[in-house]
Amino acid sequence: MKHLLSRECGELLAQLAWSRLLVAFDFDGTLAPIVADREDAQMRTRTSQLFTKVCNLYPCAVISGRSLPDVTARLGAAQLKYIVGNHGLEPGASLNEFQEEIAQARTSLEESLAGLAGVDLEDKRYSLALHYRRSRNKRLARSAILAAVAALPVRMRVIRGKLVVNVVPEQAPNKGDALLELRGTEQADTVLYVGDDVTDEDVFELDQPGRLLTARVGESRSSAAAYYLRDQSEMDRLLAKLIALRESSPR
Fold first, then answer.
1. Could you tell me which CATH class the domain 2-89+174-247 is placed in?
2. Model confidence pLDDT, tens digit, residues 87-120
3. Closest CA to 118 of 146, 138, 147
4. In terms of C-beta distances under 8 Å and separation of at least 24 residues, what long-range contacts does 209-218 make, across chains too?
5. SS3 102
6. In whole angstroms, what separates CA 244 from the centre of its chain?
7. Where are the domains of the chain?
8. Selection from 57, 56, 45, 68 nearest residue 19 by Cα
9. Under CATH, which number does the domain 96-169 receive?
10. Is 215 helix (H, G, I), strand (E, B) or coil?
């Protein structure tokens, strides 16, 4: 992985900024810092200002694990062209087919995990998230959650995240599917995607040489992302760089 804001990547970013580029981001841990209570997640004021300007200069997308209404409410004044929720599921043409599966999974998980302190089941209508950030014994909580998910009466895809286990219908589209669809809709030459978690690997693992540049918040040898930002605070530098490059574009 190379540092996306290094001097050697300057020319690459300039070429991207001057092309037909779609810019896409995850929300939690990327545009907004990770916080103890997910309800408190928001962009810093400076990040929000920069992001709003980037959205005025480029077609932009946010692809989040949050439900569509939830993430939309956290994006402030930014005029986004595309907002995708539920790990790539929302909006979608056939969402109702997943609701029955999620309802069955929720009932089963509520019964299996009743009394497990520090575990919070979040129902996002088309997917579930089992948060264990508040659990005193996080290893035990994670093991209990994974065992309960494995025993579900319906087949589900499990996406492990930062102190959360996401449960998604097996046939549901993922973030990678959503991004490819957006690129086609936008007719973009290239996409820049920045994310920070396991769910973003569905984008990082896409085989799209020359048409997709991926960056992870936090360097990781196990990630398929090609580039990295050192931490979430570097998002402001990246956004400012994208603004400066587009405003100086010769085209």
1. alpha beta
2. 998 887 566 778 888 999 999 999 999 989 999 9
3. 138
4. 211/183, 212/179, 212/183, 213/12, 213/16, 215/4, 216/1, 217/29, 217/30
5. helix
6. 25
7. 2-89+174-247, 96-169
8. 57
9. 3.30.70.1020
10. strand
**Sheet strands side by side (includes 82-84):** 2-3, 227-229, 212-217, 190-195, 21-25, 60-63, 82-84
161 three-state secondary structure: strand
Cα-Cα-Cα-Cα dihedral of 33, 36, 37, 39, to 10°? 0
Q: Give the pairing of strands 164-169 and 190-195.
A: unpaired
CB 110 within 8 A of CB 148: no
> Residue 242 corresponds to which amino acid?
L
Give the 3-state secondary structure of residue 123: strand
Q: Is the Cβ–Cβ distance between 138 and 120 less than 8 Å?
A: no
Helices (H), 86-161: 96-112, 138-150
Low pLDDT (below 50) residues in the chain: none
Angle between helices 10-17 and 235-247 (to 10 degrees): 60
Determine contact, residues 243/57, Cβ cutoff 8 Å.
yes
- How far is the CA of 200 from the CAs of 25, 27, 38, 188, in angstroms? 10, 11, 18, 20
161: its two tokens: 């995240």
Tell me the backbone φ, ψ of residue 83, rounded to 5 degrees: -130, 125
The rounded distance, in Å, linking the Cα atoms of 24 and 177 is 13
Task: Find out whether 66 and 57 touch, Cβ atoms under 8 Å.
Answer: no
